[in-house]
């Protein structure tokens, strides 16, 4: 097996509570053509969980009410996983290619979180019109837009 080399292309920063992606200078030209897309997929690194203990977690106590008590890591969005990779989809609010800045509607990452890749959200490849989920999460919102107004406090155990 080949060694994998993952290099951050930028980082998440918060400016006046507004989430931004700040790209490293060598990657800024890769923004060309992104300006027509409304949403972006952000692959980021759970750097706070990049340690041997977190990477060895394969089962977790469920963070969700009404779910099984224990879930495999791959059935959760837990930061503790063999490779601490996260994926967020967010609305693009603005792009400044010269400064390497993408303004976002939201992201569930911390300030200075490493960003490892970006991909445009394209409905023909990324949208599933009739996804199936387990009964314990079937009442959750069916879209990113519906999630914004959803009361998540009754979903999580923390």
TrEMBL record:
<dbReference type="InterPro" id="IPR023370">
    <property type="entry name" value="TrmO-like_N"/>
</dbReference>
<protein>
    <submittedName>
        <fullName>tRNA-Thr(GGU) m(6)t(6)A37 methyltransferase TsaA</fullName>
    </submittedName>
</protein>
<dbReference type="GO" id="GO:0032259">
    <property type="term" value="P:methylation"/>
</dbReference>
<dbReference type="InterPro" id="IPR040372">
    <property type="entry name" value="YaeB-like"/>
</dbReference>
<dbReference type="InterPro" id="IPR036413">
    <property type="entry name" value="YaeB-like_sf"/>
</dbReference>
<keyword id="KW-0489">Methyltransferase</keyword>
<keyword id="KW-0808">Transferase</keyword>
<feature type="domain" description="TsaA-like">
    <location>
        <begin position="6"/>
        <end position="130"/>
    </location>
</feature>
<dbReference type="Pfam" id="PF01980">
    <property type="entry name" value="TrmO_N"/>
</dbReference>
<dbReference type="GO" id="GO:0008168">
    <property type="term" value="F:methyltransferase activity"/>
</dbReference>
<dbReference type="InterPro" id="IPR036414">
    <property type="entry name" value="YaeB_N_sf"/>
</dbReference>
<keyword id="KW-0949">S-adenosyl-L-methionine</keyword>
<comment type="similarity">
    <text>Belongs to the tRNA methyltransferase O family.</text>
</comment>
């Amino acid at each position: 097996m080949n060694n994998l080399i993952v290099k951050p292309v930028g980082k998440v920063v918060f400016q006046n509570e507004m989430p931004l992606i700040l790209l490293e200078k060598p990657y800024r030209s890769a923004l060309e053509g992104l300006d027509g897309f409304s949403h972006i997929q952000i692959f980021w690194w759970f750097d706070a969980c990049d340690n041997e203990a977190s990477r060895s977690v394969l089962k977790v106590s469920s963070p969700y009410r009404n779910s099984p008590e224990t879930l495999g890591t791959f059935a959760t969005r837990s930061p503790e996983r063999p490779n601490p990779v996260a994926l967020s989809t967010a609305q693009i609010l603005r792009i400044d290619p010269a400064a390497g800045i993408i303004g976002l509607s939201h992201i569930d990452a911390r300030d200075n979180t490493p960003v490892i890749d970006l991909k445009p959200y394209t409905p023909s490849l990324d949208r599933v019109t009739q996804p199936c989920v387990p009964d314990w999460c079937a009442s959750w919102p069916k879209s990113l837009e519906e999630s914004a107004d959803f009361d998540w406090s009754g979903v999580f155990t923390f």
